[in-house]
Amino acid sequence: MDERDWLAARFEENRTHLRAVAYRMLGSPTEADDAVQESWLRLSRSGASGVENLGGWLTTVVARVCLDMLRSRKSRREEPLDAQGTEPIVSREDGTDPEHEAMLADSVGLALTVVLETLAPAERVAFVLHDMFDLPFDEIAPIVGRSSTAARQLASRARRRVQGAAKASDADLARKRKIVGAFLAASRGGDFAALIALLDPDVVLRADRAAVQVGAPKVVRGAAAVAGTFSGRAQTAQPALINGAAGAVWAPGGRPRVVFTFTIRGGKIVEIDMTADPDYLGRLDLAILND
Question: Are 106 and 202 part of one and the same domain?
Fold first, then answer.
């Protein structure tokens, strides 16, 4: 085995870890892959001569690549490539890429990714490397171009902001779960007035093609029309967490058949999406809750 083949084999041993590090820093699977590829290019150009801990060296390299990408993103005021709106991150359609699955399993949730987007690049790198991957500050310092003490302060500032945002996120989720629970109760009980009170006047109900095929209306607009659609129904729908967000599911025999996702603003339901596509349902992170 020549040196390049040996380097490639050692790199592959570290790829899953590097992708997890890059994804946590960048919040984008596509950009994470780009960062990992760049770290391989740098390794292939420089070689591993004199490197005692190749895994640590690669982690440092991918962290520096990510820091450059974050700074470039800030200067262009761009969002990460894959963080558009609130579309949840799900596994690939074939579900057969173990490295991709491992990266997602070891990645931060969508809510924390959004919080990390608010941090300065150096804060984000220091926080991720120390709090998530246990790198000591004397190793983080040269990556962010600061002293060890300054790197510690960067991580501490980031930690306070993340913790504050996490508490706010937890409280927001609790409020939305309460609204969804009240909606389901009013639907089952046929309480039209209660449904109207929970719905925005311009609420929109949408159903995907699979849901339409089993009898759901494709689009319903307005509080009265949506309330009429649900009043006296949803008898067996259960509250659920759908990719960490408050929602509901119809799951006869424990098998999800239809999921209901809710967009809630100002304490009112503004959108309801009914999805019955089995392939999509199979890719969701779904947890059925007790009423």
Answer: no
Distance between CA atoms of residues 60 and 68, nearest Å: 12
Query: pLDDT of 105-150, one tens digit each?
Result: 333 455 566 677 778 899 999 999 998 888 999 999 999 999 999 9
| Same domain for 198 and 142 | no
Phi then psi for residue 87, to 5 deg, are: -65, 125
Two tokens, residue 147:
């002293």
pLDDT by residue (tens digit) across 31-51? 889 999 999 998 888 776 777
Does one domain contain both 132 and 8?
yes
Helix 223-230 and helix 148-189, axial crossing angle in degrees, nearest 10: 70
Rounded-to-integer distance, Cα 221 and Cα 90, Å: 29
Instruction: Specify if 63 maps to a domain.
Output: yes
Residue pLDDT, tens place only, 153-204: 999 888 887 777 666 666 778 888 999 999 999 999 999 999 999 999 999 9
Query: 109 vs 103, 106, 116, 122, 286, CA distance in Å?
Result: 12, 9, 11, 21, 14
Map tokens 């790829």 to a residue: 15
Write down the H helix ranges in 190-216: 192-198, 209-213
Residues 227 and 195: beta-carbon distance below 8 Å: yes
Name 288's bridge partners: 240
Q: Is residue 166 part of a domain?
A: no
* Domain ranges, residue 187: 174-288
The whole-model pTM stands at 0.48
Give the tens place of pLDDT for each residue, 49-89: 777 788 888 999 999 999 999 888 766 554 444 443 333 33
Would you say 228 and 247 are in contact if contact means Cβ atoms under 8 Å apart? no
Measure the CA angle with vertex 27, ends 156 and 85; round to 5°.
Answer: 115
* DSSP classification of residue 286: E
247-268 mean pLDDT = 88
